[in-house]
Amino acid sequence: MALMITDECINCDVCEPECPNGAISPGEEIYVIDPVLCTECVGHFDAPQCVEVCPVDCIPLDPDNKETQDELMAKFKRITGAA
């Protein structure tokens, strides 16, 4: 399941550089996560790095983008070209 950033975001800028897939970018009002690129850091880290650094806890799972661990790993491999 991809992650999402809620409107509780304070635009502190700490999440964007932590994303290994480049899935986080500034939106019109708050940062946004591209579900096509978000793997919840599967393949890179044991936990989503954006969630780890977020000071306001505004990055939950996105209920509109449900994925299994296997699907997230397949996405990681597709994005990174890993075998």
TrEMBL record:
> What Gene3D superfamilies has UniProt attached to this entry?
3.30.70.20
* Database matches in Pfam families: Fer4_7
The Gene Ontology terms for molecular function here are: 4 iron, 4 sulfur cluster binding; metal ion binding
Name it: 4Fe-4S binding domain-containing protein
Tell whether Cell membrane is among the UniProt keywords. Answer: no
Task: Using the record's annotation, list all stretches that form the 4Fe-4S ferredoxin-type domain.
Answer: 1-29, 31-64
Organism of origin:
Ectothiorhodospira magna
Under the heading SUPFAM superfamilies, the entry gives:
4Fe-4S ferredoxins
* Signal peptide (UniProt feature, chain positions): none
Record InterPro entries = 4Fe4S_Fe-S-bd (IPR017896), 4Fe4S_Fe_S_CS (IPR017900), PSI_iron-sulfur_center (IPR050157), YfhL-like (IPR047927)
Secreted keyword on record: no
Q: Which NCBIfam families match?
A: di_4Fe-4S_YfhL
Provide this UniProt record's keywords sorted from A to Z. 4Fe-4S, Electron transport, Iron, Iron-sulfur, Metal-binding, Repeat, Transport
GO CC terms, sorted:
cytoplasm
